[in-house]
């Protein structure tokens, strides 16, 4: 499911891929369901391509989301990312992914994980695993 969920640089929130041509994509906001076209010169990233740096190999974002979902029993995260200090964010993220690389994962990255997780759960997307196409 995360293959269809996109982050567009410079835009608020996450989007679901509706259609794609050679020069543009049409997306639908997960928040308000409004559709927008974006030319492919914008930086558009599928959440299935995002990974978190760890002390070993990178950890795919869907695995992080699955861990959060298990810890939260599928509920929204209640972390106030605007008021939380860097140390608090790092301490919380260590409960999710203990081996994350503290030198390459920044507080802003952790805030994005929290924001994206909550947006996905709000939109009813809780199946984070990447399914192999047959």
Structure description:
This protein is an alpha+beta fold and 134 residues long. It folds into 2 domains: 2-47, SH3 type barrels, CATH 2.30.30.730; 51-122, Arc Repressor Mutant, subunit A (Orthogonal Bundle), CATH 1.10.10. The chain has helices at residues 61-72, 86-96, 107-122; strands at residues 5-8, 14-20, 24-29, 35-39, 44-46, 51-52, 59-60. It has a 5-stranded antiparallel sheet with strand order 4-3-2-1-5. A hairpin with a 5-residue loop joins strand 3 and strand 4 (35-39). The longest helix is centred in the C-terminal third of the chain and has 16 residues, at 107-122. The chain is globular and about 40 Å long. The chain starts with a strand and ends in a 12-residue tail after the last helix. The model has no long low-confidence stretch (mean pLDDT 92).
Structural class: alpha+beta
Q: Roughly what fraction of the amino acids lie in strands?
A: 15-25%
Q: What is the terminal-to-terminal distance?
A: 15 Å
CATH architecture of the largest domain: Orthogonal Bundle
Count every beta strand, where a strand is a DSSP E run of 2 or more residues: 7
Q: Please bin the fraction of helical residues.
A: 25-40%
CATH class of the largest domain: Mainly Alpha
CATH topology of the largest domain, by name, is Arc Repressor Mutant, subunit A
Give the topology string: H per helix, E per strand.
EEEEEEEHHH
Radius of gyration: 15 Å
Largest sheet: 5 strands, antiparallel
